[in-house]
Amino acid sequence: MSKTLSENREVWKTIILFLILLTVLSSIAYYAILKLNPTSIYVGALMLSPALASFITLKIRKRPISSLPWNLKELRYLKLSYITPILYVSIAYAFIWLFGFGDLINSERILQWSNELGIDNSNQTIVMIVMIFLLLTVGVVKNLGSTLGEEIGWRGFLIFELRKVMSFKSVAIVSGLIWAVYHFPIINLMYGRGENLLLHLTAFTIMIIGISVILAYYTFKSKSLWPAAMYHSVHNIYIQKICTPLTISNGSTEFWIDEYGFMIPIITTIFAVYFWKKAEKENL
Asked: What is the pTM (predicted TM-score) of this model?
């Protein structure tokens, strides 16, 4: 019993060390974003901070970086991690467009895509097909560098440490809350002067916790961090580069659209319940 308590104490020391390092590193990046200029290079530094925190933690705890779950034995989890965010985001935006919380199609965005691709704007369908295909392939691969910086820390390191002292359900919720709070300063930067900051924080937190359940499932089943990195990249690209830009805003849009409105959190919660029960049945 004393050995178990001692082991648990060491795990908690590791988790706390990681969180302290994460706070320090992300604070430096947030200072640059909030006080200097919110450029992509500073945002990239922020997204790299969970990976750096995990690497430094492993070094201090005298554990090799190779101990992280780098290998991927079953490609089906990579495929599922690609498909899942496309599925729930498509459902969410279908409801947004169906209920009139936003309208299709943003012609200005199509024109911008046409100029970027060098394709005549007279055929908007071709422009959309080509750009969406490129974003969901080339764009996803390019974005993997950024999402990997987060996922090495969250799913590669943190949830495996938490799992040593917590149940699957607790791991999903706690890691989700940590992940959400990590994003709060950015959301405050975006909406801090508006009246709906609390609404956006709440919607984002619900979404993140739901996603954390799904990602914990895929990570523990695959024993690899790569499905989470793929999932995270597809989620970001499909929402931020495709669905939201193609939507024309109206008076209700802010409350429902994107990662900070309530439609995606509602759908991800439904998906999370499914994976929650699936994990329970499989004794994860």
From this structure: 0.94
Question: At 228, which amino acid appears?
Answer: A
Count of Cβ atoms closer than 10 Å to residue 62 Cβ: 6
**Three-class DSSP category at 103:** strand
Other beta carbons less than 10 A from residue 54's beta carbon: 22
Q: How far is CA 192 from the centre of its chain?
A: 21
pLDDT, greater one: 262 or 196: 262
- Angle between helix 40-60 and helix 2-31 axes, rounded to 10 deg: 150
Q: Closest Cα to residue 78, out of 226, 271, 236, 232?
A: 226
Write the single-letter amino acid at 261: G
pLDDT tens per residue across span 213-244: 999 999 999 999 999 999 999 999 999 999 99
User: Cβ(135)–Cβ(242) under 8 Å?
Assistant: yes
Give which of 139, 147, 130, 107 is closest to 231, Cα–Cα.
147
Q: What does the DSSP assignment read for 188-218?
A: HHHHTTSS-HHHHHHHHHHHHHHHHHHHHHH
CB 171 within 8 A of CB 216: yes
* Distance set, CA 166 to CA 94, 161, 215 (Å): 37, 9, 16
Beta bridge partners of 103: 248
Report CA 2 to chain centroid distance, whole Å.
38
What SS3 state is found at 39?
A: coil
DSSP letter (8 states) at residue 260: T
Structure tokens at 118: 């060098």
How many angstroms from the chain centroid is the CA of residue 267? 15
